[in-house]
Amino acid sequence: MGKKKAFISFALLIAAVLLSGCSQSDPGFSVVQTSDGTEILVDELSSAIVSVDFPHHEIHDGESFTSDIVDEQLGNNDTIILAWKTPSAPALVHMVLEFNTLVGGDLTLWEGATWTAGTGSLNPILNRKRDSVTTSILLEDTTGPGFTATDNLSANVTGLNTGAAIQLHHFHAWGVKNKISAVGARDDEWLLNPDTQYALVFTSSAVSNKAQITVNWYERTNPIIPIGGGDDMSLLFAVLAVFSVALTVGMFATKQVLLGFPSVIFWAILGGFCYDQSTATWDMWYFTFFASIGMAIFCSIAMYGLRNIKEELEDGDQMIDEKGGVEAEFYDDGEGTPLEAYERDTSSGGSAKKIRARADKRRGRK
């Protein structure tokens, strides 16, 4: 009994550690863990999620880009041009436009514009996450022939034709020379068409002007979450649960102690999987985690108990009737049927008498 008590005490200690270790809280905010292990902070006072917006996230994800061009010697009606072509679907470009001007001017975004291939200069594209190796999918034809992705836009192309193009964006800014810089910008995002040519044009409205145009965008292929991910997780949960239950039932049905160890392992794996899937304290995954760990502890105790029963059966202590009836069977190390073994032991004063004496003692007989 000493080993059994020690084993049970150890199992209870593991359960206590799990319970205490999973109930800690952080001061000032709560932590919610997603299925991929990401922690979401929730403000304790307002219950608001501490977060960044999606375009900001795209910077962190290495999928956000920027490109700008400056001209400090603009005359009246002089232009600054950035031109590019979007690639074919499914990748989509989400773009925001901005410009600065000293005196004033107009910013226009044209969709479907054309220009003379192989003209202009390369204007570099920068990934806004500086340690990212991801490059932009936008295309230029300055280096020609044809449009290619070189991590550049085409700047100040010649032969720009907007006759059949669609004017998407037109913004005007006024300014006073040498006194104030006029700034024009919109937070409105443009979701550009795939496989389409675009030209962003700033036109100066005065002499001795200076201006800068900037484009910021991120590139994303929809859907963000791959279809079928949830089904894969459900299938994995089902497989782990079926194996855990089958091994446990098999251990008790066949009284095979060796099935106990894989039962414990599968219940523990299932518990770890459920903990990883949990996104909030005491959600269904969290409850399933504790139930799985409880089953792992139960199976380990049951495995120990079945081993003791098996050892007692091998020693000949089989089926003692505690209610006072006739013992059904007695086994010994000899040959023959249980009845023959019982008769042989009775006549020779063998183990049957010892078993009967032990049974009488349990019943309180003298």
What do you see in this structure?
With 366 residues, this protein is of the alpha+beta class. The chain folds into 2 domains: 2-49 and 225-314, no CATH class; 57-221, Jelly Rolls (Sandwich). Helix content is 34%, strand content 26%. It has helices at 2-21, 54-60, 229-254, 260-277, 284-314, 338-348, 351-363, and strands at 29-33, 39-43, 49-50, 64-74, 79-85, 91-101, 104-111, 121-124, 126-127, 152-155, 166-174, 182-185, 190-191, 197-204, 209-221. Strands 4, 6, 9, 12, 13 and 15 form a 6-stranded antiparallel β-sheet that branches. A 6-stranded antiparallel β-sheet has the order 8-10-5-14-7-11, with no helix packed on it. The protein has a 3-stranded antiparallel β-sheet with strand order 1-2-3, with no helix packed on it. A hairpin with a 5-residue loop joins strand 2 and strand 3. Helix 4 (260-277) packs antiparallel against helix 5. The longest helix is centred in the last third of the chain and has 31 residues, at 284-314. The protein is elongated, with a radius of gyration of 39 Å. Residues 20-28, 224-229 and 317-334 have low confidence and may be disordered.
Q: Mind describing the biggest β-sheet?
A: 6 strands, antiparallel
Beta-strand portion reads 25-35%
Task: Look at the structure and give the mean pLDDT.
Answer: 77
Number of domains: 2
> Which consecutive residue ranges, at least 5 long each, have pLDDT under 50?
20-28, 224-229, 317-334
CATH architecture of the largest domain: Sandwich
Structural class based on helices, strands and sheet pairing? alpha+beta
Q: Distance between the terminal alpha carbons, to the nearest Å? A: 26 Å
The CATH class of the largest domain is Mainly Beta
> Helical region count?
7
